[in-house]
Write a structure and sequence with these properties.
Blueprint (H helix, E strand, L loop, with lengths): L6 H13 L2 H8 L3 H15 L4 E4 L2 E4 L1 H25 L6 E6 L1 H18 L4 E6 L12 E6 L7 E13 L2 H4 L15 E2 L5 H8 L11 E2 L2 H9 L5 E4 L4 H6 L10 E11 L7 H15 L27
Parallel strand pairs: 3-4, 3-5, 7-8
Antiparallel strand pairs: 1-2, 5-10, 6-9, 6-10
Helix pairs in contact: 1-2, 1-3, 1-4, 2-3
Length: 315
């Protein structure tokens, strides 16, 4: 039989731990700070452990408090989401996806029409905040680039993040080998300063350094490349559609792993929700589909072995 201890006290503790004060918890729960303090104190007595250290003008959680709160918050989030799902009108089905702005523009939005064909009743809402944005409490799921280690989240791999230079066709015609690259023409992305050195080292052109225009996002650099401003370091899957359409070409076949992957991230309770389950099935299938038609052959780096390079200017 399930044994639940003093739910009001648990709610009071979780709200105080999350807000950092009894007053903040009281405002959220519509009770006084003193009432929250009493409920938390009773909870501590029933548990037999201290959850807070009471200090002047602030609360400090004990190790037991931190452990308790880290488990409780996802449970309350799941309960709130389940309640919203059960009480929402049957006609309202909302899926909120957190992605970076470039991923949204370069991959997600062009494919949403396909998802809508499969699930016309689901209202997809995209929120963007960049690669460093924390996972939002109101997100159904997110798509993030990294190593797959996000505490409290399930991370399922979608794509490898491979790097290869791309440019407009007229510029590609001037590039016969990596040694033809010149620093001032190599477009940069501010938060990915390691991309060009990584690729250039693999190509055996360490004497060249990227000194072209710097942009905040990959999407900006790729658009500049489409417009002929220079050569951008492309990252998959951002470049696949442009390569397929011929807006960009890859002058060289060398493709270098960035050392990270793209992941679908979500809280474990989402797997029980039909709308998220439908989206998860769709995106895993979409990610597994062949990338841009006519992409260059992929050659990974191998320690101690010189990489073979092929001219691919006609793509």
């Amino acid at each position: 039989m399930r044994r639940l201890l003093f739910l009001n006290g648990i709610k009071a503790f979780e709200a105080a731990a999350r807000s950092g004060s009894f007053a903040g918890a009281g405002s959220e729960l519509n009770v006084s700070a003193a009432a929250v303090s009493r409920m938390v104190h009773l909870l501590e007595q029933r548990l037999g452990v201290a959850l807070f250290e009471r200090k002047a003008n602030r609360l400090v959680m004990t190790a037991a408090g931190r452990a308790y709160q880290s488990g409780l918050t996802p449970i309350f989030d799941a309960l709130a989401s389940l309640t919203a799902q059960v009480t929402a009108p049957a006609s309202v089905r909302v899926l909120t996806i957190g992605v970076g702005p470039t991923f949204a523009m370069r991959w997600m939005i062009p494919r949403l029409a396909d998802f809508r064909q499969h699930e016309p009743d689901i209202d997809v809402r995209i929120t963007t905040g960049g690669a460093a944005a924390p996972f939002g409490d109101d997100w159904s799921c997110g798509i993030k680039l990294g190593d797959g280690d996000w505490p409290g989240l399930v991370a399922e791999p979608l794509f490898a993040a491979d790097l290869l230079p791309v440019c407009a066709p007229r510029l590609a015609a001037q590039l016969k080998r990596p040694g033809d690259l010149r620093g001032p023409s190599l477009l940069r992305v501010a938060h990915a300063a390691e991309d060009w050195p990584l690729w250039l080292k693999a190509a055996g052109v360490a004497r060249v350094s990227a000194r072209g225009t710097e942009f905040q996002y990959y999407g900006h650099a790729l658009q500049a490349a489409v417009d002929g401003l220079g050569i951008a370091m492309g990252i998959r899957p951002y470049i696949d559609d442009d390569l397929a359409a011929g807006r960009l070409v890859a002058p060289f076949a060398l493709s270098v792993p960035k050392g990270m992957r793209w992941y679908l991230v979500y809280r474990s309770f989402r797997t029980e929700q039909r709308d998220f389950a439908a989206f998860r099935r769709w995106i895993i299938r979409a990610a597994a589909e062949p990338a841009a038609r006519g992409k260059p052959g992929k050659i990974h780096r191998h320690a101690g072995r010189k990489n073979r390079l092929k001219n691919n200017a006609g793509m």
